[in-house]
């Protein structure tokens, strides 16, 4: 409405009607008041934003004005100085959760990496899996580079930007070559591709032993994780399941690190979806009692051992030979090393049988393992 004083007259008029049934004219007046209030509120927000921008531009050269005006539309989220899922788990999860909260509100974010002093591929892979959700949902995002040149180089060499800006397809990540020390693979609408696992095994064993070798534990772990994606991931807005795998070669120390990320809801939360009574036999109901008692770590331990927990505290086998039990079996046989799992409120250092409760919840599943010279291997005869 044109006159800012007009709504006061309208409100006074409407209040005088008391509890009478409203006429069409009175209904239109009330509607006009609601519209005016919304416009006034929106106008105040715009004026505050303009005032804030004017303060930011004071004393700044004209060449920076456009960048500053663009930046003010984003919500800053600062990464921790030690940006690592393995060495600084809870701070890194908190950082990711703040980004995800803006995603859920469909708000733009600016990822501040300026002060990061240490970064590894665990954090890069998880951040990539989360930022890709913004791209799929068509929510704008931006960020800066770390001041530390070594950290900046690590991000650039990791293929973070290449994968973030590439279209997701079923063939994404098949370009595995020996010329690169770092590779990131991604899949949509997951199909288990044994050929990709074979390529990864071939190049990984060349890094460690200087020749192609067969590592059954490595290929089994990759296949099991691909299978389990459909169970533990959540569908993104393009109605596809996404998983991410980072493979990092350390030729000097003759080892290869693997980081697998299933961003969605995590293992424990996904158990609620299990509804087939023939398979689960009140599995989730019993495990939920443990979670309510703060025993999420015990749940993961049981899952790794392929065991079922009952209210009478009896442990019984329920699910052997698949998923997590199969991956742990590869660790026990010496086929892989340093298996670590982070999901929901639990961090599991499986090789040392150490299960840690986390104060921050990670909405997904992160798995790290290594292939080293002392791991079981055989002559290549494929």
From TrEMBL:
<protein>
    <recommendedName>
        <fullName>STAS domain-containing protein</fullName>
    </recommendedName>
</protein>
């Amino acid at each position: 409405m044109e006159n800012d004083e007009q709504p006061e007259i309208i409100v006074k008029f409407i209040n005088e009607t008391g509890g009478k049934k409203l006429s069409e004219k009175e209904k239109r007046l009330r509607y006009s008041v609601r519209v005016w209030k919304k416009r006034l509120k929106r106008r105040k927000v715009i004026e505050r934003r303009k005032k804030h921008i004017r303060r930011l531009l004071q004393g700044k050269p004209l060449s920076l004005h456009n960048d500053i005006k663009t930046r003010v539309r984003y919500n800053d989220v600062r990464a921790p100085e030690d940006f690592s899922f393995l060495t600084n788990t809870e701070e890194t999860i908190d950082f990711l959760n703040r980004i995800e909260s803006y995603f859920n509100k469909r708000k733009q974010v600016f990822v501040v990496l300026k002060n990061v002093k240490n970064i590894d591929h665990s954090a890069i892979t998880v951040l990539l899996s989360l930022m890709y959700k913004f791209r799929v949902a068509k929510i704008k995002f931006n960020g800066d580079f770390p001041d530390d040149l070594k950290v900046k180089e690590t991000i650039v060499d990791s293929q973070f930007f290449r994968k973030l800006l590439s279209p997701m397809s079923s063939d994404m990540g098949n370009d595995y070559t020996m010329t690169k020390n770092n590779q990131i693979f991604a899949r949509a609408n997951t199909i288990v591709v044994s050929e990709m696992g074979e390529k990864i095994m071939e190049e990984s064993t060349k890094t460690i032993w200087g020749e192609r070798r067969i590592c059954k534990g490595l290929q089994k772990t990759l296949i099991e994780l691909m299978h389990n994606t459909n169970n533990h991931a959540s569908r993104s807005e393009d109605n596809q399941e996404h998983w991410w795998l980072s493979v990092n070669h350390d030729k000097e120390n003759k080892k290869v690190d693997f980081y697998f990320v299933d961003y969605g809801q995590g293992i424990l939360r996904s158990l609620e979806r299990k509804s087939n009574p023939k398979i689960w036999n009140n599995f989730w109901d019993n495990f939920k009692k443990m979670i309510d008692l703060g025993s999420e770590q015990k749940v993961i331990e049981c899952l790794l051992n392929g065991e079922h927990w009952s209210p009478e505290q009896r442990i019984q086998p329920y699910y052997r030979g698949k998923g997590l039990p199969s991956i742990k079996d590869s660790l026990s046989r010496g086929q892989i090393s340093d298996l670590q799992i982070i999901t929901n409120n639990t961090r599991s250092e499986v090789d040392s049988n150490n299960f840690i409760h986390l104060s921050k919840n990670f909405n997904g599943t992160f798995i790290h393992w290594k292939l080293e010279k002392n791991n079981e291997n055989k002559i290549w005869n494929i």
